[in-house]
Amino acid sequence: MLFKNIDKRKPSSGVDPVDPFDMAASNGDAGPSVPALECRGVVKGFGGEPVIDGLDLVLEQGQVMALLGRSGCGKTTTLRLIAGFEDPDAGVVLMNGQTVSGPGENVPPENRQVGIVLQEGALFPHLTVEQNVAYGLGKESRGNGRRDARIQEVLAMVGMEQLSHRMPHELSGGQHQRVALARALAPRPRVLLLDEPFSNLDPRLREQVRKDVLEILKDSGVSAIFVTHDQEEALFMGDVIAVMNQGAVEQVGQPEEIFHHPATRFVAEFIGLADFIPAWRDGDHLVTEVGSTEWPAFDGYEGSDGIDGRLEVMVRPDCLMCHASQQGQGVITRREFRGPFNLYHVSLPSGHAVRCLLSHTENFSVGTTVSVGLRNGHALTPFINDRAA
Ligand SMILES: Nc1ncnc2c1ncn2[C@@H]1O[C@H](COP(=O)(O)OP(=O)(O)OP(=O)(O)O)[C@@H](O)[C@H]1O
Ligand SMILES: [Mg+2]
Questions:
Q1: Domains of the chain and CATH, by start
Q2: What does the pLDDT read at residue 181?
Q3: Residue 305: DSSP 8-state
Q4: What is the pTM of this model?
């Protein structure tokens, strides 16, 4: 089923119900200290193949989490486990501190108060905008004034009140997704799950819609997980980003933290452009061919002060600058035009290469000898390269 109609008046079991027609109701009334959602050690396999493999996740009240990962890493399966469309083989899912999936506990999807928005929106083609949103509120209170007020409220929230009598085929892609969002928000879900909701939109529209949707999510105060492949979208949408790899969360953190301090090489390579070059320790400093920074708090490196071949650092192209210099250590091997910037590939004496992002005020041709160094204020992020051991 694409969208679960949630009837909160007759929960057989499940999370405490919210009255969707109560204008003062909040989505986060379990208290700010209780996470809206928690997955602890969740495991799920299909046909003996593990797909979700010890997944841990905490979504705080009112938080928007961007769930990012490669195709097939288990993002949709994670959402299906949270919504209750799949049962975990092991582990626990809690909503507002109450177990919804776990040993001896399996709250059906209709009692979880989870809203879902999918890639294609999945509006009912034979229902108007207003009727689609009304569907989200169930059938039983039809004609109820408070219900009608709630429909108008969510349509206004997504800026669709003027188009409430249109049919889905009369809407643009962006409008379609806004109605899908209104329909999912109408019953005041505890948790809203969005599975790549903008991937069918063209890039320009997508940028506008993502801005609008983030505003709507924040205004509504809903706790949400937003799945995307698109790292730029994740950096923009997420209060926090969870990077998934092979059925588990590899790192969760604020966008800046994930970008500048990736916990693993996978995360570093997945978010933004990253190059890895050898490093060594010189007293209090972490030294590389492109400069040095203070030795950081870094567990896991017990090597000597010299190069042992396993210590390396991540450098991002925006952290480097270069200028033409006969004494420089680098040689430009390639220039990529990137609109407002050029991305230069620079080879270093060790045989490693870095990339350097520069504005058009600096122009180097291939073969130029350059001095390449760290821009002020940028630190180096060390990693242990186990492949070199
Ligand atoms: N019902 C199922 N039966 C068998 N295998 C499944 C089932 N559902 C998912 N899988 C497999 O589990 C893996 C994860 O699928 P999932 O749809 O969660 O990936 P995803 O991260 O959402 O990928 P995408 O970004 O392409 O949407 C895939 O290898 C998929 O083929
Ligand atoms: Mg998917």
A1: 37-269 (3.40.50.300), 279-388 (2.40.50.140)
A2: 87
A3: S
A4: 0.84
Question: Ligand 1 centre from 72 Cα, in Å?
Answer: 5
User: How confident is the model over 195-226, as pLDDT tens digits?
Assistant: 998 887 777 778 888 888 898 889 889 999 99
Longest dimension (CA), the chain: 80
As a whole number, mean pLDDT of residues 347-353 equals 95
Q: 3-state DSSP call for residue 286? A: strand
Q: How far apart are CA 182 and CA 152, in angstroms?
A: 10
> Residue 198 region, left (φ>0) first, then alpha (ψ -120 to 50), else beta?
alpha
Question: And the tokens for 31?
Answer: 């208290």
Who's near 256: CB < 8 A, 6+ residues apart?
A: none
Strand, helix or coil for residue 8: coil
* Partners of 263 in beta bridges: none
pLDDT score, position 201: 75
* Strands laid side by side in the 330-338 sheet: 320-324, 369-374, 330-338, 341-347, 353-359
Ligand 1 within 6 A of CB of 76: yes
Q: Strand, helix or coil at 235?
A: helix
Distance from C-alpha of 356 to C-alpha of 372, rounded to nearest angstrom? 8
Residue nearest to atom 6 of ligand 1 (CA): 46
Q: How far is the CA of 228 from the centre of ligand 2 (A)?
A: 8
Asked if residue 77 has its Cβ within 6 Å of ligand 1, the reply is yes
The answer to whether 82 and 113 have CB atoms below 8 angstroms apart is no
Share the mean pLDDT of the chain. Answer: 85
